[in-house]
Amino acid sequence: MMTFALYALHVGSVVWVGVDARKRDFSGSRFANKTWQWVVGALLLWIIVFPVYLFKRGNAPLKGSQPGPRPLTPLSHVAGFPVEPVRQGEEPAREKSLERLWDR
């Protein structure tokens, strides 16, 4: 039963890599710059290629997207208050909840 679960995890993650890599532009990557390279690598050397893919996909923009500021991530809301992006030339606003955290 455990073997089946490991195979299912392997195949499922390889399928996800293929679907996700097709949406991204890896043209600047020296490791793998085409979808088929990611899929074959994940099939043959999953323990190495899958973590590398997870790392590299953060730097690969979606195909057809304009370069710009990165979207907020779920970790942007740590400690219960949202982190607002700061525009160039503006000072960041101090959150009252942040001030309360430091005053404790």
Could you explain how this protein is built, in words?
- The chain has 104 residues and is an all-alpha fold.
- The chain folds into two domains: 2-59; 74-103, no CATH class.
- 49% of the residues lie in helices and 0% in strands.
- Helix 1 (2-23) runs antiparallel to helix 2 and helix 2 (35-44) packs antiparallel against helix 3.
- The longest helix has 22 residues, at 2-23.
- It is elongated and about 55 Å long.
- The N and C termini lie far apart (51 Å).
- The relative contact order is 0.10.
- The model has no long low-confidence stretch (mean pLDDT 79).
Describe the structure using short key phrases.
0% strand, 104 residues, 2 domains, mainly alpha
The chain-level structural class is mainly alpha
Taking all residues together, what is the mean pLDDT? 79
User: What overall geometry do the principal axes of the alpha carbons give?
Assistant: elongated
Tally of DSSP helical segments: 4
Radius of gyration: 19 Å
Biggest sheet layout: none
Q: Which stretches of 5+ consecutive residues score pLDDT under 50?
A: none
Level of helix content?
A: 40-55%
Number of domains: 2
Total E-strand runs: 0
Query: First CA to last CA: what distance?
Result: 51 Å
Content of β-strand: under 5%
Order of helices and strands: HHHH
